[in-house]
Write a structure and sequence with these properties.
By secondary structure, this protein is an all-beta fold. Helices cover 0% and strands 24% of the residues. It is elongated and about 60 Å long.
């Protein structure tokens, strides 16, 4: 099967670990294993699949950390690891994935801060980091993601205020920061987000007046 470019085994009842032997499929561009009962760590060997453009491993029982070797996938456009038991910090090496457009890490146990290197993903359109154990402040470097349309950071344990640099995201359509322990005022500059149609700041500790810029 050396010529195989797409392998999708999603929505089955597959169990066991992800076989590292998948790296023998050197021409693979799409790998989908989501919605199974797979367990164990993500094999670091997947970082050898140099042609890979999409990798979907969500809705399994995978555990351990994200192997930093995934940052070697220079052609990767879509990375979906949501709804597993993955833990540890988000590797800053992911900021090297210059072609990445979709990053889904929702519903795991990732801890520590969002690495500021995520702000290097200039092609990113969708960033989903909700429902983890992320802490510290939201990095202002996220304001460099000029192509971003959807930003979901809710249900974490951030500290500090909403960075006003998020107002630089002129393509942003959804900003979800619900239940994230944020404090301080709502930045008036968010009112300049002309493409925004959903802003969800529920269940935080925000204070001060509602900026008139939000309703002008």
């Amino acid at each position: 099967m050396e010529s195989l470019e797409s392998l999708d085994l999603g929505d089955n009842d597959l169990s066991g670990v992800i076989p590292p032997e998948l790296t023998s499929l050197a021409n693979l561009r799409q790998l989908g294993l989501r919605s199974n009962d797979l367990t164990g760590p993500i094999p670091s060997e997947l970082g050898d699949l140099a042609s890979l453009e999409s990798l979907y491993l969500g809705y399994n029982g995978l555990s351990g950390a994200i192997p930093p070797e995934l940052a070697d996938l220079g052609k990767l456009r879509q990375l979906g690891l949501g709804s597993n038991n993955l833990a540890g910090p988000i590797p800053p090496e992911l900021g090297n994935l210059a072609s990445l457009e979709h990053l889904d890490l929702v519903g795991n146990r990732f801890s520590g801060p969002i690495p500021p290197e995520i702000g290097n993903l200039v092609s990113l359109r969708e960033l989903f980091l909700s429902s983890n154990n992320l802490i510290s402040s939201i990095p202002p470097e996220l304001g460099r993601l000029a192509s971003l349309q959807f930003l979901y950071l809710g249900y974490n344990d951030f500290s500090g205020s909403i960075p006003p640099e998020l107002s630089n995201l002129g393509s942003l359509e959804v900003l979800n920061l619900v239940s994230s322990s944020l404090t301080g005022p709502i930045p008036p500059a968010l009112g300049s987000l002309g493409s925004l149609w959903q802003l969800d700041l529920r269940s935080n500790d925000l204070a001060g007046p509602i900026p008139p810029e939000l309703v002008e």
